[in-house]
Specification:
mainly alpha; 240 residues; single chain
Length: 240
């Protein structure tokens, strides 16, 4: 039953032109633009930008789960699910698994642009490791998106998700190198989930193991976002 539900939600997401453009087309376009203007031809820069833009696309795709949840809540679909054999745990699990699927095209699109168009060279094992690492690391953002969707109206969810995407992207250094930040912003960036998420991908490109601090920060944010999603779901169950 969960498998059928996930297939339904994935088809719904991938049929939306806005989702495909914003989570796949825009990150690929921005990656190619940023790395082919201003003489930025260093292989290290192109690899780092590739990871950052893939992370940006995955972030947007994961948060977009909240938009669908909020729409389902407003149309009564969540109420209908509650009278089916689908338990609340299965519904939330199905949504989380949907997020795990819909982030893959965003990650794959940018990685293909890096390898085929920008000349990023890695071993086959490194390519797979980067893709899998970014895929697994996107889980906390799916929980954040779910929490926003269960808590807010469709219109408010869209605004909150855009604000979260832009804020986490900029402060986390997905668009610009953290080395260019002032000292105080660099210190803040180190505690953001997006900064540590990008570090996971960079460690994979370099064939190294991410530091304990990176894993600790990501796990902490995953726990926080998971709690937020659970509380928001329980609140929606009382009002929908």
């Amino acid at each position: 039953m969960i498998t059928a539900y996930v297939r339904l939600e994935v088809r719904r997401a991938l049929r939306e032109a806005g989702f495909v453009i914003s989570t796949i087309g825009v990150p690929v376009m921005m990656y190619l633009l940023f790395t082919n203007l201003g003489g930025q031809n260093e292989p290290e820069w192109r690899a780092a930008a590739m990871v950052g833009m893939a992370a940006y696309g995955a972030l947007g795709a994961a948060l977009s789960l909240g938009n669908g949840v909020a729409e389902d809540k407003s149309t009564g679909w969540l109420r209908q699910l509650r009278i089916t054999p689908m338990t609340p745990l299965r519904v939330v699990t199905g949504r989380a698994l949907t997020g795990a699927v819909v982030v893959l095209p965003a990650i794959t699109g940018v990685l293909l642009a890096g390898g085929l168009l920008n000349g990023v060279h890695m071993t086959a094992r490194q390519w797979v490791t980067v893709a899998v690492t970014l895929w697994l690391g996107s889980f906390p953002f799916a929980l954040l998106g779910l929490g926003n969707g269960y808590r807010f109206t469709p219109q408010t969810t869209g605004v909150v998700n855009v604000a979260c995407t832009l804020g986490l992207t900029v402060v986390g250094g997905l668009w610009f190198p953290v080395a260019l930040f002032p000292d105080w912003l660099r210190a803040v960036s180190e505690f953001t989930p997006t900064n540590r998420y990008a570090e996971l991908g960079m460690a994979a490109t370099e064939g190294t193991v991410p530091g304990a601090a990176t894993l600790a920060v990501l796990l902490g944010w995953a726990a926080l976002f998971g709690t937020y999603a659970a509380v928001s779901y329980r609140r929606s169950a009382r009002t929908v």
